[in-house]
Specification:
Chains A, B, C, D: InterPro entries: Amidohydrolase (IPR017439), Bact_exopeptidase_dim_dom (IPR036264), Peptidase_M20 (IPR002933), Peptidase_M20_dimer (IPR011650). Chains A, B, C, D: Keywords: Hydrolase, Manganese, Metal-binding. Chains A, B, C, D: Residues 210-303 form the Peptidase M20 dimerisation domain. Chains A, B, C, D: Its cofactor is Mn(2+). The structure is a homotetramer of 432-residue chains. Chain A has 13 helices and 18 strands. Chain A is an alpha+beta fold. Chain A folds into 2 domains: 14-202 and 322-423, 3-Layer(aba) Sandwich (Aminopeptidase); 205-320, Alpha-Beta Plaits, CATH 3.30.70. An 8-stranded mixed β-sheet of chain A has the order 1-2-6-3-7-18-8-17, with helices on both faces. The first copy, chain A, has a 4-stranded antiparallel β-sheet with strand order 12-14-10-15, with helices on one face. A two-stranded antiparallel ribbon of chain A has the order 4-5. In chain A, a hairpin with a 3-residue loop joins strand 1 (62-67) and strand 2. In chain A, helix 4 crosses helix 13. The radius of gyration of chain A is 23 Å and the shape is elongated. Chains A and D meet through helix 7 and strand 12 of A and helix 7 and strand 12 of D.
Amino acid sequence: MTTPPVVRGTVPDADVVLAPLPDLLPGLRETYEDLHRHPELSYQETRTAALVAERLAAAGYVVHSGVGGTGVAGVLGNGVGPCVLLRADMDALPVTEDTGLPYASTVRTTTADGIESGVMHACGHDVHVTALLGAADVLARGRSAWSGTLVVVFQPAEELGTGAQAMVDDGLYDLVPRPDIVLGQHVAPVAAGLLGLHAGPAFAGADVLDIRLVGRGGHGSRPEATVDPVVMAASTVLKLQTIVSREVAAGDAAVVTVGRLQAGTKDNIIPDEASLGVNVRSFGEAVRSRVLGAIERIVHAEAAAAGAPEPPRITPGESFPPLVNDPAETERTRAALAARFGAERVIDPGAVSGSEDVSVLATAAGVPLVYWLLGGWDPAAFFAAEQAGTTDRDIPSNHSPRFAPVPHPTLETGVTALVVATLDRLEAPDGA
Amino acid sequence: MTTPPVVRGTVPDADVVLAPLPDLLPGLRETYEDLHRHPELSYQETRTAALVAERLAAAGYVVHSGVGGTGVAGVLGNGVGPCVLLRADMDALPVTEDTGLPYASTVRTTTADGIESGVMHACGHDVHVTALLGAADVLARGRSAWSGTLVVVFQPAEELGTGAQAMVDDGLYDLVPRPDIVLGQHVAPVAAGLLGLHAGPAFAGADVLDIRLVGRGGHGSRPEATVDPVVMAASTVLKLQTIVSREVAAGDAAVVTVGRLQAGTKDNIIPDEASLGVNVRSFGEAVRSRVLGAIERIVHAEAAAAGAPEPPRITPGESFPPLVNDPAETERTRAALAARFGAERVIDPGAVSGSEDVSVLATAAGVPLVYWLLGGWDPAAFFAAEQAGTTDRDIPSNHSPRFAPVPHPTLETGVTALVVATLDRLEAPDGA
Amino acid sequence: MTTPPVVRGTVPDADVVLAPLPDLLPGLRETYEDLHRHPELSYQETRTAALVAERLAAAGYVVHSGVGGTGVAGVLGNGVGPCVLLRADMDALPVTEDTGLPYASTVRTTTADGIESGVMHACGHDVHVTALLGAADVLARGRSAWSGTLVVVFQPAEELGTGAQAMVDDGLYDLVPRPDIVLGQHVAPVAAGLLGLHAGPAFAGADVLDIRLVGRGGHGSRPEATVDPVVMAASTVLKLQTIVSREVAAGDAAVVTVGRLQAGTKDNIIPDEASLGVNVRSFGEAVRSRVLGAIERIVHAEAAAAGAPEPPRITPGESFPPLVNDPAETERTRAALAARFGAERVIDPGAVSGSEDVSVLATAAGVPLVYWLLGGWDPAAFFAAEQAGTTDRDIPSNHSPRFAPVPHPTLETGVTALVVATLDRLEAPDGA
Amino acid sequence: MTTPPVVRGTVPDADVVLAPLPDLLPGLRETYEDLHRHPELSYQETRTAALVAERLAAAGYVVHSGVGGTGVAGVLGNGVGPCVLLRADMDALPVTEDTGLPYASTVRTTTADGIESGVMHACGHDVHVTALLGAADVLARGRSAWSGTLVVVFQPAEELGTGAQAMVDDGLYDLVPRPDIVLGQHVAPVAAGLLGLHAGPAFAGADVLDIRLVGRGGHGSRPEATVDPVVMAASTVLKLQTIVSREVAAGDAAVVTVGRLQAGTKDNIIPDEASLGVNVRSFGEAVRSRVLGAIERIVHAEAAAAGAPEPPRITPGESFPPLVNDPAETERTRAALAARFGAERVIDPGAVSGSEDVSVLATAAGVPLVYWLLGGWDPAAFFAAEQAGTTDRDIPSNHSPRFAPVPHPTLETGVTALVVATLDRLEAPDGA
């Protein structure tokens, strides 16, 4: 999956391309706050997509909308040279915002499981969209400084792990040129101003399971006439903890999270069923298989222990492969970023347990991927928490109702990182 | 609370009063199916109340509507003599019906906790309303056969344990005469045609608790940065099982049910909170205190075990006292019913773990209560299950999505029991 | 099982028989302290049996030793009249005494499961032996006051539930006359001076299960290479709590106790197996069957959940039937005791969850049983705790390391109760 | 901790030193079987120590016995040159052997906690002792081939993590020369013939906790009068699973094992206390602190949840630091071993979760450590299991009752590895 060694031409001058950025930042910040205020769930990103399409068209890109549902792709052909694909994801999450920000979301939804919830950009995809719009803009404005082709992809439904595949299945690579490399970034609870690159397996694979535990409902005062699915669910959740604690070696890694547990409507009615949403992270097939096998074994045994009238129903949902950064290309991008930002601002965060479907775009094209973390946290607060050993407690993680990247210097850093990494792949125009 | 011994006059002739019942039964069955098709949650029983008010007025009762919200009371003064209060409850439950009946409910609701659910008469209050309408009708038609005053009360919100008190607080006993006795019945998973009376404590007291367990949300792949309320809730539910298993003596009785457990919206988001609806049954204050104390102790300790950032919030909800049937009056009613139905059809079911707020009407009036169970199950199926030892599995209990009393002979038995027990308290008119 | 109505002759004069008791009490107290200091486990009661045999022989009884292992039976024929069998049990328990008494036990043992423990009369069988020796003595001294036959049985291994059967199987009723009634008593955490009789089912049935959970051992640092039986056992114990909390109706009663849980020898070695000792109490066959079935279902499912390499091994141990006091005979004995002690000292404690194999002696003889509780607690402390609602906490129950009946007035009351209840069944001699 | 770069002289000729090994192997195998048959627990290794001392003396070593209790050190001064310390540990474990080997142990013990158990070399220290005796022997026989000083240390009580420190505290480095490097090996479930070296942190740190959960005992039929420590212990064990599953990041590693859980003596006695032996593995202080803190938090909260009359008692036991192999010296030894065995037989197993106190000997001397894994498993069986993905199930791990290294080629490989790694550090004699 590595590219052949190339005879490198002159790298385009990033200073020229980035010159207008300071004047554009206030507008980007407005865009960011607007997106944050209007989060849209997976495959419902119509407002976001319309905004993206309009901005790309205005910047001179050929725009393809409705790719894979609500996805948008823009192409800027600019002479001979390599083709670079930059990707951002657009969807938000069913989380009720609790940031206290003036531009906090008040959007509400009812999930497919009938749960009422707020909707929130709790994973920073609004940062991703804004930074890529900024990068697309300055790269278009500065097109005299580089030669090649730029493809920008705004993907739906990353949170479901299906959006990238949906765009590919819908003919993305018939609409846009096949790139030489795929680049992208994800905002993370790291000090703003920092970038994090890890070569090799960098993000975990993820599997989603929907589990229905079937009991037999009845009156809350007569449990003996029921099979109580609430107790069955509770015991199942506790037993699932033993997978990571007892069945995964210290040298391996996995995460098993029950993020959703729903049973019953009223205290004095024992319901018929309980429903669990389970998320599994792993970095390799052996551990993945063992964990998925253990979940199935435990869930069935818990139903048997409870005397359930029917076996549980386990429905596999999304499945993300691990994200693997091409080692050689990652080192090349690290060097380019370090040259711009200083080596101390380009850290190696190790493999993270988050998952991403961006690798689908690279794999489908048969090209390497380089994907990095973009620090989003107020550095003073972040380093103070790190010093005090309270990072986990004080720095809200992605998906938290309090997830709130600071726009400055996050947006500026995000745009600059995309531009620098892209120009490193493009060519200076003849005579530049 | 017992009434003084009375010199009994002649008991009115029930045969006379019940003569029109066979002709009325088809209409009562239509009413029953109509009510079953249109269940209404607590304090939303407007359609039911309107139907009740119209029928009572047509039968000649003075009608008071809107008592305690949606309650209806009717009064039929009919000469000198005692006053008997008959009570039915009107509300349905947030249960999604699964009976397959042609007149099954398709009504839907979203609960205050944001859970979508069907609405269903899963506790048979439609039977209670229909039977009391039938009894009110024949007693009015046959008023020449008795002397005294009849009060019929159709109560809202029994399921919340607050409807009877709401009617009393709203001035019920300023609107209707204070009765000499309160009578009523509850349909139960017992063979239709049977009646069940138990003297003394007959229904359990109930307490409802809403419990919010506060964790700290975040990304499903980074549990170490969260305090997982799903695991906290699961462990709490399991630990609550130890109250009945370890803290209540074999000679005492209590039930602790978590009928509602809700946490999270999506598999890969660890939520901030989990919510539990807990229902407690007990028959005496010592056990009740110990159980409620143990719940509080356990819930707080589970939060401490999890390292919760905030203590849990335990909000007491409804609280039903135990229902105590006046011993002497119960024996008197048992004798009257046995004389009509045969002694073998009037069983003693013992104390049941269900709860009822009907006793509030008696206590507020300072008079005795007699409340009985009305069998609602197909006798063939019921006795076969009893024979096979599968009653608990095959006979759906109250609050089950499959709770389905058979209209025949349940309605006929219910009307007859109310009429017979009432006439036993009234007087024959002079010269009768 | 009731005896035919009898034409009662004159009841022997208890005052005459009990006259020497005050002078004998200091010696009885010495005997009690000696027995307490020298507890012997089930079927090892050789020292106790030797002491009993010697005292009975000295009092004029025909003595049969070694009946059913270590059991002793004494017979005193004294003319025409009924035959009464009085029973005491002799065995102690593997409990490490923590009473602080000057005559506390320091005896040690290693159980069959390899557990080191103290040995203690933690169930008061030393009281039973002493009181019966006292009663046998005064009844023999006062034999001129009564006519009939007395059989006194000192039984081994009540704690295993097999000692009474062992004596019967070893030919007890070939050695001693078949009695007309079996009487006995058990010291209990009730105020000393009180007696407790309950007609009908008075003590629970008990079943004992030995459960081996088979995992696969290994190094404590590599759980992934093992199947951890400690976690399997822990989960099983918690799941067993749901039987009583969810599968036994509020109106029924059962107890499921895991009194022994043993797994492993060292923190860093995951063992191959865990061993549980489970004790079940119930009052009827339906509940008993459901509970035993649930245990089997849960234990197998827990092994399946853990991925156990072998199914668990469940070995049934002792099984006690419920103890049923003959209703008519119980009322007769209650009257006799009330006449002696005053009615307020003869209470009805209801059914208790303890178990007893004394009923085997009555059933094998086809005669009725009357068995009562003998209060053993300092009345001041007991009533104060009852007043404060702290009985459960402050009054050590049987089997507690702090179980310590007060010798006075417990021994005196115990002897007197046995004598009075016995004389009530015997006849006054001709001319008395 | 790295040694300064050295001008290397000629390495001694290992072929010469190892020449007698084939003839010595049958005797070594006898020694191994003899040691295996006679395992001795920590600080009780008197028979082993006597055998070691006799063999070392016979081979010409100056022997120091009784160092740090039962430890033995031998010194062979052999001219100018570096000093190398080779270490083996001698103690066995309270595990009941289940290997079926003809030389299986039948030794029994009763632990300090009163548990009866077999005693077994379940961690292969018998291999370590045998291989080091073999290496000491051939190095002594071949002393003409090298120059320098050899120190061989046979350490007690590695399993307690205190034996190395005990020898240091008892003046080991006053008795023997301070070495330039410490070398050693541990047999592991890896194919025999293979060696495993990992530079940097190679073995986890370990902490041991003894936890006493205090309840209040009583009769098994009256749990309401007790605080059941068996249920408390079960819930604690399950809750401890959440530490690794929820509080340790996927990128970090920890193990929390409850290897010993003991409560109660008999099914119908609820005991006063339960006792847990907990073992914790971690690779860095941050994770270690969080895990130990979580254990304390959970254990106290579980006692609070149970309403325990006293707080639990947590007693810290052994604490091993992580074992860190000096990176440069490890690579040097890897090269030496690869030159002898072929590179494909010297694998990098990564960090393992086992713990070792050998580093105490290096740290106390202020010199580097190189410690490797010695494969002990039948290669055919091992590779077949690896192929089938059943390694965890089919290859017994250390501390398993079925832990059984194959003597051939394990002993030969072990002796050779020690000799080669040692000679690599010594000098060839002048003129060699």
